[in-house]
Structure formats: structure tokens, C-alpha cells
């Protein structure tokens, strides 16, 4: 079966799909989006107190990709056999309208200007020995911070981010992040009200000479109407953001920022429960003709389209490129090929501070409520003699300490039984967690490809991930954790517990959903799959929006940068591609 031709077919209707659909439909293009999951909105699906169901959302994965239908296989090294994940762990891709944007925290960061020049900046400052050691494969972005600034700003105003600027047009602002790149204006909303635990962290960090600031949060510090005329409500600090939908319309998501403006437009349609199987191409392979998809009734259809946007989350974007033959697959032995290359992640650790005399009430929280320092992120500190490059932020985040998930106990407490319960009961209200959130350099041996053995419910090969931390990441994470422990001690509690990251990467426990790379952007088609507009070098009417485009991960949560790149790409489609279809960059 074939549907009538549309201008644009969008594959996946989460954050990036919604951003692109809004910009392209506003420009008059006829757009249809395909979403493998169902429709969702806050009043029907996340009404208070239904959304605070920790069993349903956190433990039974109600909002996440269904691994009985599709999953991925994993191994640490190429000489191991990859096995399928039967339960999601390390990261939690979404399914359903809004995608991961429904159950994200709302931590909105901009990368540092030097993060975009990861290779050349580090080469110049620390030399070839450091940057090329252990098969490091870092590459520069083909865009600069200055080019992305207006697009960062657009996303922050769309989401009503609550925060405090640290650098306004080059003028450093006390109380904000003094390390950030220059921003053109203040955040649209003031910071969230700070709770006790993060405030103690901020005071201790200041006493050690660091520069604490409130985490930029897409959780509303006050009622807000965004530039599309969509209203968000003030946050109630219920603490159910991370892995939950917001029943209060206080957390920015596609539903609370874009869909009320987009859905009534006659040139837009979303097809729910429709899973795209493949991008179809002309015989010579140089042009996409549309997408084939299976609907709720199991019927396979073809949607012809002049432009195809892959916005199905970075892992599925790369898999669809591989399944559709868009770009040459990466070969880790030779380093040739581009699709699958530079898969990366992040490395996290934590320190718990236990008090006897301070009640911190950690259940009062929001997805991005906290005090942070950026003194050890990116190249904000001198790495000479440290034996690693990269860095991350350190901070006390109060995301809600949900009762089943959160049971901080001092070291040497048994893992179960009466003593464990007593320790949880006496420490839960008197603990402050400090986290570190560090970058992972791209390495030649970290990549994704199609698994030769395991298949999904439709018989298509699963994505196979090969990934491990290297010495660079372990050294960096240990360094950050030591700094976090120093701040923890300065907070004056009874004792601290230091949870360092050691050994190989373990895909089982949740860490972050900040997986990146695999279809990276660059300025050379021999070393990148996409150009600076996230346009495929090989099939120019295919654009691939997501963190897959990061040639190198940074120490921040990705969505601010993913959104900025997506806006830049959408603008280029409207202002250039539509007028003259073809490559927007000539190699
Ligand atoms: C618990 C959690 C907390 C997070 N917190 C933060 C945070 O605070 N800050 C931050 O920067 N990032 C955060 N993230 C990551 C953030 O959610 C993602 O970076 C973001 O959602 C990515 O947007 P996307 O458009 O690429 O993918 P998504 O928003 O996930 O959208 C992809 C959509 O594509 C659909 N899809 C997939 N395959 C197909 C197919 N074949 N056919 C049709 N549809 C398909 C999926 O169902 C999904 O709806 C968090 C993630 C999780 C899981």
C-alpha cells in the first residue's frame, strides 16, 4: 500500500521530531510524523497523583522501549560475543509521542566553546601524545558555539528554562556559571527555589574557592508562556520528573511546549503505532523515496516523501541508516567507513554525605534542581600532568529521592535485612548525594553495527554495541570523584561514602541516557556520516537529528546541544534545501 506523497516524513516523534515538525510546518511544508508508540498527554496519562507511581514507571518501564519487540546486543570488546539486553538498564530510550522528552529530567546545558573543538583544542594545549593515545578518535564539530548560540537560546525560551546566566555577552555574572560561553540574554525564568542539601553543597564548594551555580532546569520556577503561546505551570517540587511524565505541566516536554501549537496545523499529521522499517531509496541509492512502515494492524505500507528526517533517538537512527544502506558501515579494524563510528557515552560516580543533625528532606525535588560546579568540566582546569583529558560537572542534585529507588546507607551496611532497613530509616532524611558527570572520549574500538545473529520482532538485525571505558575515562572519573569527596567533607557531615567507578562498563545499572555518536557530523565525508546540518553526505534528502551527530561527547547532558543542532538543521532545510534540493555542503 502506498500513501500520497508528502514533503517531509519524520521518523520518531520525540524531542527532535517535534522541533523539526514545528519549524517545517510553520514554513508551509506538508509533514507526516511516524511514531512507533501511542499518543500521550499530561491530563490523560500523567494526572496527579497517577504519575507518581514508582512501580509502574520506574520499575516496570511503562514509558520505555519494549525490549520484547526490539532491543540491542552488547559486548565490551570485539572479541566477545554480544548478547541481547532482556531488560533495559544503563539507558532508557522512550517509546510513544514525546519520546524521551516525556520522562527526561529537564537538565538543559550548553556545551563549552572548547567542546566543539575537542581535537584541535586539546592537541594545541596538551600535544599529540595525549590526544592520540590508546586509539582516541576524537574529532572537531563542524559548527562552533557562536553559531549555535541563537539556537540554544531558542530551545531555552521554548522550554522556559529556570536558571542564572554566568556570561552575558562576555560580561561575567556572579551567581551563574562563570565558565559558560557568552549568552545573548538571561534565562527566561529565575532559578528554582533551592532546597537544603544543594545549598549546603554550594556553601562548601564556595569555601573551597569553586564557583557554584543553580542547575539550568526545564522545570518551571514560575508560570510561563513560551514563544509558541503554550503555557506551563509552576513546579510543585513533587520529585517525580526523572523517568516520569509531569502531571502538572511544569516540566518542558514536546507535549507541554510544542504540540498544542503544532497539532491543529492542517499541514501536519502524526501516525501513532506506526514503526518505520526502512528508508527506501532510488536504484542508484543516492536519493530517498520515502519510508516503509508497519501500522498497528501489521500492514506494511510505503509513505513517499521528498525529504526524510530520522529522529528516532540516536541508537535507532544509526540502526535505520545501517538497515537502509545509507552511508558506508564503519569497520573498527581499518577505521574506514562512517556509520557506527565514535559511539560514546558518559561516566558517572557519586559521593554521599551523611548528617546526624541536619534534616535535608530529599523527597522535595525536581528533575534539575541542584547546585553545581563547572570548575572541572571540559578544559576549565589545567590537565597538565593529570594523565587524561576531558572532565565533567559536579553537583548536589535533588531530583526527588523516590522511596523505592533511593536508599543511601553508609559503607559496610549489609545489602538487605533488618540492619539495612534500620540504616535506610535513619539516613534517608539526613543525606546529600553529590554526583559527578563526566565526558567519555571517542575511541576507535567503541562503535555500533548490525548484529549478525540476533533479530527483532520483524526479523531485522538488532543493533550491536561494542563499548568500554578506557584508562583516560577512569583517571578522569577518579579525579572528579576525589574533588566531590573533598567538597563532601567540607560540608561537615558525620561521614561520607565514596562510590568510584571501576572496572569495565556495565550495561545493567542505569547511568544516563546520554549515548552519543554513531552517525557523526563533520566536514569530510570520509570521516563523518553527516555534514554540519545533520544531512547525510551519501543521501542528501535524508537528515538525521539526534545525539548520534556528536563526533565527541562532552561532560554535559545532551539535549540542549541536540536541540540547538536540530534548530540549525531545520532552519537550513527551510531557507536553503527547499529552494535548491541537494547537498547543503559540498565536500
Ligand atoms: C530518565 C531519563 C532522563 C533524561 N534526562 C535528561 C536531561 O535532564 N537532560 C538531557 O539533556 N537529556 C536527558 N535525557 C535524554 C533525553 O531524553 C534525550 O536526549 C532526548 O529525548 C533525545 O531526543 P530524540 O528526539 O533524539 O529522541 P526521543 O525524544 O527519545 O524520540 C525518539 C522517538 O522515536 C520513536 N521511534 C524510535 N524508532 C522508531 C521507528 N523505527 N519508527 C517510528 N518511531 C520510532 C520512539 O518511540 C521515540 O518516541 C534523559 C533520558 C532519560 C531516559
Structure description:
This protein has 587 residues and is an alpha+beta fold. The protein has one domain: FAD/NAD(P)-binding domain. The protein is built from 14 helices and 23 strands. The chain has helices at 15-26, 42-45, 54-59, 100-103, 118-126, 128-131, 145-159, 196-207, 254-257, 259-262, 314-324, 418-427, 471-490, 559-577; strands at 6-11, 31-34, 72-75, 83-84, 167-168, 171-172, 213-214, 224-225, 231-232, 268-271, 275-281, 288-294, 300-310, 341-344, 346-354, 370-373, 392-397, 431-439, 447-455, 461-466, 495-499, 516-518, 542-544. Strands 1, 2, 10, 11, 12, 13 and 23 form a seven-stranded mixed beta sheet that branches. A six-stranded antiparallel beta sheet has the order 7-16-17-18-15-21, covered by helices on one side. A four-stranded mixed beta sheet has the order 4-3-20-19, covered by helices on one side. A hairpin with a 5-residue loop joins strand 19 (447-455) and strand 20 (461-466). The longest helix has 20 residues, at 471-490. It is globular, with a radius of gyration of 23 Å. The model has no long low-confidence stretch (mean pLDDT 96). It binds flavin-adenine dinucleotide. The site of flavin-adenine dinucleotide has 42 residues, from helix 1, helix 4, strand 11, helix 11 and helix 14.
